[in-house]
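Today's session is about reading a structure prediction critically. Students often jump straight to the picture, but the first step is always the sequence itself: look for stretches that repeat, for charged clusters, for runs of hydrophobic residues. Only then move on to the predicted structure, which in these notes is written as discrete structure tokens rather than atom positions. Here is the chain we will use throughout the hour.
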Amino acid sequence: MTAYQVLARKWRPKTFADLVGQQHVVKALKNALDKGRLHHAYLLTGTRGVGKTTIARILAKSLNCETPTHGEPCGVCQSCRDIDAGRFVDLLEIDAASNTGIDNIREVLENAQYAPTVGKYKVYIIDEVHMLSKSAFNAMLKTLEEPPEHVKFILATTDPHKVPITVLSRCLQFVLRNMTAQQVAEHLTHVLKTEQIVYEPAALVLLGRAAQGSMRDALSLLDQAIAMGSGSVQERDVRDMIGAVDKRYLYELLTFLMEQDGENLIAKAQEMSANAIGFDSALNDLAMLLQRLALLKTVPSAIEHDDPERERLLHLAQYFSDEQIQLYYQCVIHGKNDLPLAPDEYAGFVMTLLRMLAFAPFAAKHTPQNAVIEGTQLHNPPEKKTHEHAEISGSLKTHSAQVIDEMHSDENQIVTENISSNIEVSGSLKAESSDEIQTDLPKHLRDAEAENLGSLKTEIAEKTIAEVEPNQSHHSEDMPSWDNTATASPQNRQPENVPQIVPAPVAEIYPNDDDIAYFSGSLNDVYPDDFPAFDDLPSELIQPENCAEPDEIAASEEATDPSEPMPELVAANWVQIARRIGTQVAAAQMPLQHMAWVDFADGVLRLAVVREQTRNTMKREYFQRIESALSATYAMPIRIETVDFVDGNGWETPLMYRARMLAEQREQARQILEKDENVKQIKKLFNAKWREESIELLEAPKI
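Below is the predicted structure for this chain, in token form.
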């Protein structure tokens, strides 16, 4: 009976062409052999199982081959056969871990001066050279620097930092890289096909990752997997062998996160604990899955089309945003780092899942679509407050001036600042500051304008303070001290009867000479006599009669009370129906927003689906959810049939309805602003030009 030879030895490469990876080393060595530019000492470094000893033996064969071809050994001559069989007298392999002393090195150096017996070169392969003693290194320095012409040294080590720099400087060093999991899996596939062993591709991927870049480790694991599978390599056996987490658990966890199903999420964690799944490995594999998911969304071509997990990744990618995947990834890796600090692994794993659940796209299972999570910057970022630009509100709104009262401890005076700041003008005539307008005027006019504006602001401030505190003068030195007990917080102090101060709105002036109307004189010459004072503007100018607030516009689209009856099942109510049942169908509400009502008869609801928007989100399970929700809501069996959406049939999906409402409301706002007398006066007064594209709504329509 022939003795079994392990795969790691049986499949050791015999030529450079058989090597997996290390092309940067192979290319340099083959070119040097082909051109005859041979160094006298080579140092090969790298982790275990990447090919250091193998490359050293192939190089020794190439040096002594009788008929090499472009640096490749022929493999059939006597020298090649003897080296493969381990009986070539001019090739000496020395294990430095066993021969560490100076006496062993001295014996090698004494024999180096003699010419080779049968080959062209006498080759010394010293493995694990970093294990030599300091005296042994010193003894070989001179010979290593200037050896006889027939001697070649090939040193190999896994720890080059322990090799003296004097030795490193005398060698041509090559750093061998770890092999990728894909390279390992491809080589294992070739081995199994040649050995005619049945295998599952997913099992080889697991072995490639478990090998961590070492081909020898991968082949040893493959031997073990073949023995465990009784002559075949199965994914389940490999997972049990290396302790890998079943991908089914990971995909189910992400699915429950997608559906905001906390109950099943915890139940799955308990099932993993009952099956003795290592939670450290589970978090590691979950992070790897999220990384592949992010890679697929950002660079789809990075995931091979024949990847066995590609379809499942594509399915999940439809339900998670890029930001959400990044957030989940951070939660997982931080949870993995915190695992040793947790009371036990199960508690740390569950807390990581709950953290991911808390930062899910929807705050709760019954949160309506397009809702935001209050208090979180991810879904409800803080509004950027600006003092330079006007706020758009659909009408010319005015706000009360901000009077900042401060207590001066020495003089007991209230200092009022920032009168008439942050004035919000809607529309929007994107206004520039008055200082920017005046820069286009001649200097003497700018000085006159500044003087008049200063007087105007002073009058407004004095008038405001006088109306706020009619019985007190802000110049009075006898002003009573501030009552701290009555006003614990300046924010809670609300002066009564504060009038609305509306300084002259400033419109955008185009800085072209043709558009600038130069004038002389003061502001009294600019403002007509019949122009109303800012604080006396009639309310109909401040708030046009027909101008609806955005809150009023969207009031009819706000989420209604669940106790209210559902609208009648007709085409006109389809948008409301889709919104009402959206909270019941969870993830199915995403394709639901791309479905339009066609007709309803005999319990069959026909919907037109926009295929290009739902290509990767259509699942029979989602249709069943929608059917169940409609059937339960209207207390009758309802079945859904779909057709392709065709333009021109009068069909409208909920998202199309929302876009139409947005366009109509923007047009309504434009018409209102065009008719606004205040806007007309501003345009006429400042020779301003209207920018219709600047109209924006404070709040978009909701479905």
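Discussion point for the tutorial: The longest strand covers residues 151-157.
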